[in-house]
Design a protein that fits this description.
The protein is of the alpha+beta class and about 475 residues long. The protein has helices at about 10-35, 45-70, 105-110, 135-145, 170-180, 185-200, 205-220, 225-255, 295, 330-335, 355-375, 385-400, 435-440, 465-475, and strands at about 5, 70-75, 80-85, 90-95, 100-105, 115-120, 130-135, 165-170, 255-260, 265-270, 275-280, 285-290, 300-305, 320-325, 345-350, 400-405, 410-415, 420-425, 430-435, 445-450, 460-465. Helix 5 (about 170-180) packs across helix 8. The protein is globular and about 75 Å long.
Length: about 475
Amino acid sequence: MRELKHQHKFIIFSELFQFIKNSIVPLVIFLVSLGSKIPKKYGGDYTEVIVIIAFFVIVSALAIFKWKRNVYNVQDEGMYMKYGIFEIHERTVPFSQVHTADISSSLIQRVFNVCKLEIDTAGGDKKSEISIFSSKQEALRIKSIIFKVKENENQDEIVEEKNIKKLTSSLKDLFVMATFSTRILAGFFIIFAFYSKIDDMLPKEFKKRAQGYTDNVMKGVNGVNIIKYVVILIFIILFISWVISIGLTIIKYYKFTVIREDDNIKLSYGLFNKKEVTIPVKRIQSLIIVEGIIKKSLGYFSLNVETIGYGKDKGESTMICPIAKRTVLDKFFVDILPEMNISYELEKSPRKALKGFLLFRLVPEFIVMSLVAYFAPYGYYIFLLIPILVILYYTRFIDNGLYCSDKFIVMRYRKLARETIIMQKKSVQSMEKIQNIFQKKKAVAKCKVTIAGDVVGNSYTVGYMNEDFIKDHGRF
């Protein structure tokens, strides 16, 4: 007979919070509509208090009842779970089908020594197959059973001293990452959105007085000084956005650590919401080296992995290294992922295809620019973008590359950032040649490679490659 365990009692507070969060708006509407309809002699003066107390009693009872019904059992070959309030669900997940087991803990959860264990299979659903609250020791014990890792006497730490190879991202690296992150632009727009909301909420009298004060200050100020003030204001907003970006990046990726332990890669990161993730190496379908325009010039890169049954929510979990110096890449391949450690020389796009590559992209944009120049005041200034676009597209052309061997395929292309994808041939589902009539005359074509994924797979495409090269290496 299986021994069933309850989840940590923290789930009661978690469910209580979820109930309140999901019900707060209907509750307020209900109170507003009900309060004036009950006569005083029947307790009309205390309607709100009675309803709120009844609400808390009901949701507390439901949370406790859910905790009582939510049980699980861990065996050597699989995990059994029983849950539900009005409708009882029973689920058994064989460990052989488990792809990832992630441990996360928020700041409040760490105070109570509790964490959340999420177990995923290859299913395409965004929600985890199994999600339980437990102590850190219990979560690590379950992970050790799933991935057949020997239990360590000190299970409070994810890092062991022996047979462990690891890489870490320093605060300096995270600082560089935040400085050149798109979060700066996001912060810029957040500040403007916040300003517009405040502007809508301010009383008209206050805005009228503020406008009068501004008009008095601006009297006698010439156009040059106005431009200076605008530029200074933009720099202030960008500085605030930069500070916000640094804060968000450090909070999310604080002490980002990558560990290779036996046949698993473990990730640990986060300041307030700490996450611990285990990725079986055999589930990795491709490794992606990302080099941004500015980051590449400073010698930095980031690493992503595509896996089956992982990274299904928001894409954040596919990042295996947020940022590191280029000199760390060799160490990563030797210590963390030697299975992808190969030497290769990319086949580049032939120079004869450069003219067609540029024309195919610049002609549509030139037409749009002409319309802007014709209809918009001073629109002809938009033609100043043409040299920038030529440089950008030329850089994209020379970055194109393809490598094929008996065991590996390597693709390289550039959108804004340059991406190099390394994948094992056994992970490839299909390799496709795509060609239009203009490319056929130049004997070039696109190469599209599709690898296994959760539902339909993931595809990578590199364009304007030699047609014969694709034909020769497109057969498995």
